[in-house]
TrEMBL record:
This is TRAP C4-dicarboxylate transport system permease DctM subunit domain-containing protein. GO terms for molecular function: transmembrane transporter activity. GO terms for cellular component: plasma membrane. The chain crosses the membrane at residues 48-74, 95-119, 200-218, 230-249, 255-272, 279-294, 326-346, 358-384, 396-420. InterPro entries: TRAP_DctM. It comes from marine sediment metagenome. Keywords: Membrane, Transmembrane, Transmembrane helix.
Length: 430
C-alpha cells in the first residue's frame, strides 16, 4: 500500500483539491478554503496513515502464507540455527516483572510526568514580534447560499462560534498586526519563558528512561546475575534526574550541564556495561536518537547500519580469534560524537565562539575521523570474509527498485492525467 500511495499520491492530492474547489463553487462559496475552513490539501503523512492498516493486513497475510508453507513443506523452508542452550532459568514471575511490569511502569510514569509538567522542553527562545490577532475559525462575510452550506457542513454551533469570534475581533478595534517587541518586553518574555519551563528536560528524561529500560531488560534476561552493577546504574539514573531538577536550569551552558551530569552518567554507563547486549544496545540507541530528538529517522537509519556493520565485524573477528578492540573503540567514538554534538554548539566561526565550543569541536572531529576509520575497517573485515559483497548486491537491487518506482510514478501520473484519468476517477467515485 505504501508503494501504491507513492505511485498515486500526487494524483490523489490533485483530485482532492480539484474536487473540493468544485464542491465549494457548487454551493455558492468562492473557494474551498472558505467552505471547508482549511486548505484543501492532502499531506504525504495523511496518505501514509491511510496505508497503515492495509499494509499491516497484507503483512499478516504474507506472514501467514510463509508460516503455512513452512509447516507443510519443511524441507523447502530456510534452515534455523539453534543457539546453544543457556543455563539461566527464568521463571514466569521474573519474566512478567522485568519484561512487562517494570518497562510499562517506567514508560507510563514518564508519560504521566510529562503530562503533569514535570518533564518538558527547555527551549527559552522568544519571538521578537508580538502575536497578531487570530481570525475567526470560519469566514463569515459570505453569501447567504454559502453560509447555509457551511452550516450544513460544520453545524450551527460552529457557525455561531465563528460569528461570536468575528464580533469580538470587531469590538476590539479589528485585527491587530504583529509588532516588534522592545528590549524590556523581550527581557520580560524571556523571564516568563524560563519560569514556565519544566524541572526535567525532555532529552535527559528520555535518555535516562532508555538506560532504565536497558537495565530492566538485562535483569530479566539474567535474573541470577550480580545485581550490584545494575543497582549502581539505577543510582546513576536517580542522581542524574535529581541533578537536572536541582542544579540545571534552562539557561545552563552545555559544558556546565555535561560536568554536572558527568558522575551520574559514569554510574549509569557502568551499570549499562554489565547489562550490555550488543543488539539490544543498538536498537535502543537507534530508537533513542529518534525519540530524544537527537536525529530524524534518516540519520538514525545510518546509525543503525553502522552499528550493524560493527556488530557483524566484531562477531567475525571473535570467530577467527582476532581482537575486536578497534570495533569497540569505534563504537565508543560514535557515542562520544553523539554526546558532544547534542550538548555543545559546534558551529565555530559563526557569531561569538568561546573556548568551550572550540574544545568540543576538536573532540567531535577526532571522534568522527576515528569512527570513519573504524567503519572502513569493519567493512574490510566483512569484505574479506565474503559477507559484504552479497549484502551490497541485495541492497543495490532494493535501492534501484525504489528509485525505479519513484521515477515511474511520475510517468504514470503524467500518463493518467494526459488521458483525462482524473475525470474518470471522479465520475467513478460519484
Amino acid at each position: 500500500p505504501s508503494i501504491v500511495i507513492v505511485l498515486l499520491g500526487t494524483l490523489a492530492g490533485d483530485l482532492y483539491a480539484t474536487a473540493q474547489e468544485a464542491r465549494a463553487q457548487s454551493v455558492g462559496c468562492s473557494d474551498a478554503l472558505t467552505y471547508l475552513g482549511e486548505a484543501a490539501v492532502v499531506s504525504v503523512g495523511t496518505l501514509f496513515q491511510a496505508a497503515i492498516l492495509p499494509g499491516i493486513l497484507l503483512a499478516l497475510l504474507y506472514a501467514s502464507y510463509a508460516f503455512g508453507f513452512a509447516i507443510l513443506n519443511p524441507s523447502k523452508a530456510p534452515p534455523v540455527q539453534g543457539a546453544p542452550a543457556s543455563d539461566e532459568i527464568i521463571t514466569r514471575g521474573e519474566a512478567l516483572t522485568w519484561f512487562l511490569a517494570v518497562p510499562m511502569l517506567l514508560v507510563v510514569g514518564t508519560i504521566m510526568a510529562s503530562s503533569l509538567g514535570v518533564i518538558g522542553s527547555q527551549n527559552v527562545t522568544v519571538d521578537s514580534f508580538s502575536d497578531a490577532t487570530a481570525g475567526a475559525s470560519l469566514r463569515t462575510n459570505v453569501s447567504g447560499q454559502c453560509s447555509e452550506a457551511m452550516i450544513d457542513l460544520h453545524g450551527q454551533e460552529a457557525w455561531d462560534t465563528a460569528l461570536a469570534e468575528q464580533a469580538e475581533i470587531e469590538a476590539g478595534g479589528g485585527a491587530v498586526a504583529s509588532t516588534r517587541l522592545t528590549e524590556d518586553e523581550l527581557v520580560t518574555a524571556r523571564a516568563d519563558k524560563i519560569a514556565s519551563r519544566a524541572p526535567i528536560g525532555t532529552g535527559i528524561a528520555i535518555g535516562f528512561l532508555l538506560a532504565a529500560l536497558l537495565l530492566a531488560l538485562a535483569k530479566g534476561i539474567a535474573p541470577s546475575m550480580d545485581a550490584r552493577p545494575l543497582a549502581i546504574g539505577a543510582l546513576g539514573i536517580v542522581l542524574g534526574l535529581l541533578a537536572d531538577i536541582l542544579l540545571i536550569s534552562p539557561v545552563t551552558s552545555p559544558g556546565m550541564t555535561f560536568l554536572i551530569l558527568l558522575i551520574p552518567l559514569v554510574l549509569t554507563l557502568y551499570g549499562a556495561r554489565a547489562a550490555a547486549r550488543p543488539p539490544l544496545i543498538l536498537i535502543i540507541a537507534v530508537l533513542g536518537s529518534i525519540l530524544g530528538g537527537i536525529t530524524n529517522p534518516t540519520p538514525a537509519a545510518a546509525l543503525g547500519a553502522g552499528g550493524a556493520l560493527m556488530l557483524a565485524a566484531f562477531r567475525k573477528l571473535q570467530e577467527r580469534g582476532g581482537s575486536g578492540r578497534i570495533i569497540l573503540a569505534t563504537a565508543f567514538a560514535v557515542v562520544v560524537m553523539i554526546l558532544v554534538g547534542v550538548n555543545f554548539d559546534l558551529r565555530v566561526g559563526v557569531g561569538e565562539t568561546n573556548l568551550e565550543q572550540v574544545l568540543a569541536y576538536i573532540v567531535a572531529q577526532a571522534a568522527y575521523l576515528f569512527a570513519i576509520f573504524g567503519l572502513f575497517y569493519a567493512c574490510l573485515v566483512l569484505w574479506f570474509d565474503g559477507v559484504l559483497p552479497s549484502i551490497v548486491r541485495e541492497t543495490a537491487k532494493v535501492t534501484s527498485m525504489v528509485f525505479t518506482i519513484l521515477i515511474g510514478s511520475q510517468l504514470l501520473n503524467l500518463v493518467v492525467i494526459s488521458f483525462g484519468g482524473e475525470h474518470y476517477i471522479q465520475s467513478f467515485l460519484r
